[in-house]
Design goal:
CATH topology of chain C: ABC transporter involved in vitamin B12 uptake, BtuC
Chains: A mainly alpha (281), B alpha/beta (258), C mainly alpha (310)
CATH architecture of chain C: Orthogonal Bundle
Strand order of the largest sheet of chain C: 1-2
CATH topology of the largest domain in chain B: Rossmann fold
Shape of chain B: globular
Structural class of chain B: alpha/beta
Number of helices of chain B: 9
Shape of chain C: globular
Distance between the termini of chain C: 9 Å
Oligomer: heterotrimer
CATH architecture of the largest domain in chain B: 3-Layer(aba) Sandwich
Number of domains of chain C: 1
Helix content of chain C: over 70%
Order of helices and strands of chain C: HHHHHEHHHHEHHHH
Number of strands of chain C: 2
Number of helices of chain C: 13
Structural class of chain C: mainly alpha
Radius of gyration of chain C: 19 Å
CATH class of the largest domain in chain B: Alpha Beta
Radius of gyration of chain B: 18 Å
Strand order of the largest sheet of chain B: 6-7-8-3-9-10
Largest interface: A-C, 44 and 40 residues
Number of strands of chain B: 10
Chain lengths: 281, 258, 310
C-alpha cells in the first residue's frame, strides 16, 4: 500500500503533467526525516505527523517552484537529468543535516498491538497503513473523477492550452498537483519510518519500485497505480517466500529481487503502454 | 481491354472505438491515372491514405496492390513494394539538410542500409538524383539549408519531393496544397500536371480548383463510404454529390492547419 | 565551417590526451584512464541518445556485464588481452541484443523505464553470484596481458592501451554514423513515422545500434575491471551508473562523438575536485547539474565547437 501512495504521486505528475520526477523518492525520504524530527521536537506522534505533513507540502511546493516549473516544457531527458541532480543533492543534504546513521521511530503505543483480522493476528500498525492508503486512494479517485478540480486536472493533461484559455491558472493547478504528490510521498515516508528506518538514500530503491508500479499500471492512471501496486506488492512478497524454497537461497533471492522487473518487462511486452493506458495512443 | 487496376480496395473497414471511419469502402485505381478523392471534413480521407500506406491498420477488407494483398503489411514493406505517400501535416527530417531529406528516401529504395563504412553524404548515387529532383520541384537553391528552417511552402514541396524520390508506382498525396497561398497552389498544380501520365496518383485535396484541374477521375467520400466516382464533369453534375457535399458550401482548404 | 575547424579541436584534445602521462604522477594518469573508460561508456550511451534518439537508462547493465566477463575470464586464467576484451565485447553485445529486442518494442518514457528495469535485473543477478562475492564483488588476480609485449601493470601503458582503444572506437563510430546506417539511425530519431514510410524497418536498425552501443559499454566495463582490478555490483551495475553516464553525455553534448568524452572528463573532474573541498560534494554537484539542464542549452563540447567557429 505504501507503494500505492508513492505510485499515485508519481503517476499524477507523470501522467497529468507529462513530467518525469525522479526526486519523488527524496520527498519520501524527507517525509521520514521530518516525522522523526518533528515527533522528537513536539514529543507527540500526532502533532509531529501534522507538522511533518506541512513541512513535506512546503518542500514539494518549493521544489515545484524552483526546479520543476522551468522543466515542464522540456523533454523527458532534461527532466530525468535535472531531477537526478536533485536526488544527489537531497541525499547529501540529508546526510549533512541528519548524519549517515539511520534514525528510528517507534510505533506509537495505541497502534503497537495486534488486531484480529478474520482470525489471523495482524499488526495494528500495518493494518492502519493499509486503511489510510485505501481511504486516500478512494479520496483521490473521487477528487479526480468527480470534482471540478479533478476535471481541470484531467483536462489539463490533454489540452494544456485549452484549459489555459478557459482562464484557469494552470501553473497554480500544477503546483497543487505536485504538492499533492509530494505530500503523498512524504506521508508514505512517514508511515514506513516505524517499520524500517530513515537514512539518506532510502528513497531511491523505493523510487525504482514505484516507477515499475507506474509503468505496469500505465502512466497517468490511478486505477493502474492501484492494480500495479497490488501486483508488485503481492508478487514481491510471494517471490521472497517461495523462490528461496524452490531454488535454494542463492538463486532464489536473486530471482525474488528480479520478480517485479520480470513482471514489468512481461507487461510491457504484452501491452507496451501499461495495463491501463490513461490516454489513447 | 483495359489494363487491370493497379490498386483495388475491397470492403475496407476501420473503426475507432465504435466510430466507423472507413465503412466497407471499395475503390479501383487504374495505372497512370490521377484519381482524386474529395469529401467533407471527417469523411475519413486521411485515415484511408493511412490504411493504404500502412500507418493505420484496417479492421477488415483488402488492399490489392499489383495483385498482392498488402492490407496488413507494415509501412516499410509497402514503401518497398512501390507505395509512397505525402503527409497532410508536413513530415520531414528537420535536422537533415533539404538534400539529405531526399537522399534518405532514395536510400530507402536500396535493399538495405546496413552499410557502415562509406559516407552516405558523398555517395553520388544518392546525392545526384536528390539534387536533380530538388531542382525540378524548385528547391534547387535550398539544398544545403536545414529542413527545419524552410518556409511552409517549401516544406510542402519537400514533402512531395521525398515521396517522389521513392520512385513510387502508386503515389498517395494527402492534401499537398494544405496551407498554401493561391499563388503557391497554382504553381504546385502546374508541377503536378507534369507528373500526370507518368505516375499513378491518388490525390486527397480540399482545393476544388486544383482537383478539377488535375483529376482524371474523382471519387467522393462521405462518412467513410464512396458515394460517387466519375470524371470531373460527371461529378460536377451528380445530384447526390451536390446535396451531400458540394451544394451549399465549398469546403475551404483549412483542414491542414490543425 | 564548424566541420573544418573541428579538426583543430580534435587535435588539441588528442594532444592533451597523449601528453597526460608526461605530466604529473601515476595518480593523474590513473585518473585520466578512468576518464577514458567512462568516456567510452558515455559514447556508447550517446550513440543511442544523440543519434538514434533513444534514452537508455540501463547502460550500467552492459558496462557491468563487460566487467564481470573480464573478471571471470582473468580469474579463470585467461589473461590474453585480445581474447578477454573481445569476449567482453561480444558478451555485452549479445545481452544488448536480447534486452534491445524486448525494450525497443516500447518507446518514450516506457523505453527509459524498461531499460532501467533490465539493468536492475542484472544488478540482482550480479548480487546473487555467490562464487563471485555477491554484493561485495571480487578482486582480479591480475590485469590482462598482450602476449607479454606490454606491461599492463604499468599505469602509463594501461592508459595508452585504453586511449588507443577509445581512438579506434571513435574512428569507427565516426564512419558508421556518417554512412548509410547512421543516416537511417538519425532519420529514425528525427521522424519515426517518415523513416518507415520511406521504406526502413527502423526497429532492425535501432536494434543493431543498441547492440553496438552495448558492446562498446561492455568493452569499457572490461577496462574498468582491469584498472581497478576489482569487480562488484555497486559501482558497475547499479542504476546510478546509468544515470551518471547520461549526465556525462549531456554535460559534454549529445549527438557529438567527443562530447561524451569531454563530459566524462568534466564529470569525474568535478567529482574529484569537489570531493576534496567537501565530503558532501554531491551537495554542490546536484545543483550544478540542475543549472546545466536549466540554463545551458548545448553541452560543453558544443560550446567549444562554437567558440572555435567564431
Amino acid at each position: 500500500m505504501m507503494l500505492f501512495l508513492m505510485a499515485v504521486g508519481v503517476t499524477l505528475v507523470f501522467g497529468i503533467m507529462d513530467t518525469v520526477n525522479l526526486s519523488h523518492g527524496s520527498l519520501l525520504m524527507f517525509g521520514g526525516f521530518f516525522v522523526v524530527t518533528a515527533v522528537e521536537f513536539t514529543g507527540s506522534f500526532g502533532f509531529g505527523l501534522l507538522l511533518a505533513l506541512v513541512a513535506s507540502a512546503a518542500l514539494a511546493v518549493l521544489v515545484e517552484f524552483v526546479v520543476m516549473r522551468p522543466l515542464y516544457r522540456r523533454g523527458h531527458l532534461d527532466q530525468v537529468l535535472a531531477t537526478f541532480g536533485l536526488i544527489l543533492f537531497f541525499n547529501e543534504l540529508a546526510v549533512v543535516i541528519w548524519g549517515r546513521a539511520p534514525l528510528y521511530l517507534s510505533i506509537p503505543k495505541f497502534l503497537s498491538g495486534q488486531i484480529d483480522l478474520l482470525g489471523v493476528p495482524y499488526p495494528a500498525y500495518r493494518f492502519t497503513i493499509t486503511v489510510v492508503a485505501a481511504l486516500l486512494g478512494l479520496g483521490l479517485y473521487f477528487l479526480i473523477s468527480r470534482t471540478r478540480t479533478g476535471m481541470l486536472i484531467r483536462a489539463g493533461a490533454d489540452k494544456r492550452i485549452v484549459v489555459e484559455m478557459m482562464g484557469v491558472n494552470i501553473s497554480r493547478l500544477y503546483t497543487l498537483i505536485f504538492a499533492l504528490g509530494g505530500v503523498l510521498a512524504g506521508l508514505a515516508g512517514m508511515m514506513i519510518v516505524p517499520l524500517v528506518s530513515v537514512q539518506s538514500g532510502m528513497g531511491d530503491p523505493i523510487l525504482i519500485t514505484t516507477l515499475v508500479v507506474v509503468i505496469i499500471g500505465g502512466i497517468g492512471s490511478i486505477r493502474g497505480a492501484l492494480v500495479g501496486a497490488l501486483l508488485v506488492g503481492v508478487l514481491d512478497t510471494f517471490g521472497r517466500i517461495l523462490f528461496p524454497v524452490y531454488f535454494g537461497t542463492g538463486t532464489g533471492s536473486a530471482l525474488a529481487n528480479m520478480t517485479i522487473y520480470i513482471l514489468m518487462a512481461g507487461v510491457l511486452l504484452w501491452r507496451p503502454r501499461g495495463l491501463f493506458p490513461a490516454t489513447a495512443p | 481491354m483495359t489494363p487491370p487496376p493497379i490498386l483495388r480496395i475491397e470492403g475496407l473497414t476501420k473503426r475507432y472505438s465504435g466510430l466507423v471511419v472507413t465503412d466497407d469502402l471499395s475503390l479501383e485505381v487504374e495505372p497512370n491515372e490521377l484519381h482524386a478523392i474529395i469529401g467533407p471534413n471527417g469523411a475519413g480521407k486521411t485515415t484511408l491514405i493511412g490504411q493504404l500506406a500502412g500507418q493505420v491498420m484496417p479492421d477488415a477488407g483488402h488492399v490489392w496492390f499489383d495483385g498482392k494483398d498488402v492490407a496488413h503489411a507494415s509501412p516499410p514493406e509497402r514503401a518497398r513494394s512501390g507505395i509512397a505517400r505525402s503527409f497532410q501535416i508536413t513530415s520531414i527530417f528537420p535536422s537533415f539538410s533539404t538534400e539529405a531529406n531526399v537522399a534518405i528516401a532514395i536510400q530507402g529504395r536500396r535493399r538495405h542500409s546496413f552499410r557502415f563504412w562509406r559516407p552516405a553524404d558523398r555517395d553520388p548515387k544518392l546525392i545526384d538524383p536528390a539534387r536533380e529532383l530538388l531542382t525540378s520541384v524548385g528547391l534547387g537553391d535550398r539544398m544545403q539549408t536545414p529542413a527545419a528552417v524552410l518556409s511552409h511552402g517549401e516544406h510542402r514541396l519537400l514533402e512531395l519531393a521525398i515521396a517522389l524520390a521513392q520512385q513510387p508506382r502508386l503515389l498517395l498525396l494527402d492534401e499537398p496544397m494544405a496551407g498554401l497561398g493561391s499563388e503557391e497552389s497554382k504553381e504546385l498544380v502546374t508541377f503536378l500536371l507534369t507528373l500526370k501520365g507518368r505516375y499513378t496518383i491518388l490525390l486527397v485535396e480540399h482545393d476544388m480548383d486544383a482537383v478539377f484541374a488535375l483529376a482524371d477521375r474523382i471519387s467522393v467520400l462521405a462518412a467513410g463510404r464512396i458515394i460517387a466516382t466519375g470524371t470531373p464533369e460527371e461529378i460536377r453534375v451528380d445530384q447526390e454529390v451536390r446535396t451531400a457535399y458540394l451544394g451549399d458550401e465549398m469546403p475551404i482548404a483549412a483542414e491542414g492547419e490543425r | 565551417m564548424i566541420r573544418e575547424r573541428e579538426w583543430i579541436l580534435i587535435l588539441v584534445l588528442a594532444a592533451v590526451a597523449v601528453a597526460v602521462p608526461l605530466f604529473g604522477d601515476g595518480y593523474y594518469t590513473k585518473f585520466a584512464t578512468k576518464v577514458i573508460i567512462f568516456g567510452m561508456a558515455a559514447l556508447a550511451v550517446d550513440i543511442l541518445l544523440g543519434y538514434a534518439g533513444l534514452v537508455s537508462f540501463g547502460h550500467a547493465a552492459f558496462f557491468g556485464v563487460g566487467a564481470y566477463i573480464a573478471g571471470m575470464l582473468i580469474n579463470a586464467g585467461v589473461v590474453e588481452g585480445i581474447v578477454v576484451l573481445a569476449a567482453a565485447l561480444v558478451g555485452a553485445a549479445l545481452i544488448a541484443l536480447v534486452i534491445g529486442a524486448l525494450s525497443l518494442r516500447t518507446s518514450g518514457l516506457y523505453f527509459i523505464m524498461i531499460t532501467l528495469a533490465f539493468a536492475q535485473m542484472l544488478y540482482y543477478v550480479g548480487q546473487s553470484l555467490r562464487a563471485y562475492g555477491g554484493t561485495d564483488g571480487f578482486a582480479l588476480d591480475q590485469r590482462i596481458e598482450f602476449g607479454g609485449l606490454l606491461d599492463p601493470n604499468d599505469t602509463t601503458t594501461f592508459y595508452y592501451v585504453s586511449l588507443a582503444l577509445l581512438a579506434v572506437i571513435l574512428f569507427l563510430c565516426s564512419r558508421f554514423l556518417r554512412a548509410e546506417f547512421g543516416v537511417v539511425l538519425r532519420g529514425s530519431r528525427d521522424n519515426a513515422v517518415r523513416i518507415e514510410a520511406v521504406g526502413f524497418p527502423s526497429y532492425k536498425y535501432k536494434l543493431v545500434a543498441f547492440a553496438i552501443s552495448g558492446s562498446i559499454a561492455g568493452l569499457a566495463g572490461a577496462l574498468l575491471a582491469n584498472l581497478n582490478q576489482y569487480v562488484a555490483p555497486p559501482g558497475m551495475l547499479n542504476w546510478e551508473i546509468s544515470g551518471e553516464l547520461l549526465v556525462m553525455v549531456i554535460f559534454g553534448a549529445a549527438g557529438t562523438l567527443l562530447g561524451p568524452v569531454v563530459g566524462a572528463a568534466v564529470f569525474l573532474f568535478f567529482a574529484e575536485i569537489l570531493s576534496e573541498i567537501t565530503e558532501h560534494w554531491m551537495l554542490l554537484f546536484g545543483p550544478l547539474l540542475l543549472l546545466r539542464v536549466l540554463l545551458v542549452r548545448d553541452g560543453l563540447y558544443a560550446l567549444l565547437q562554437k567558440a572555435i567557429a567564431k
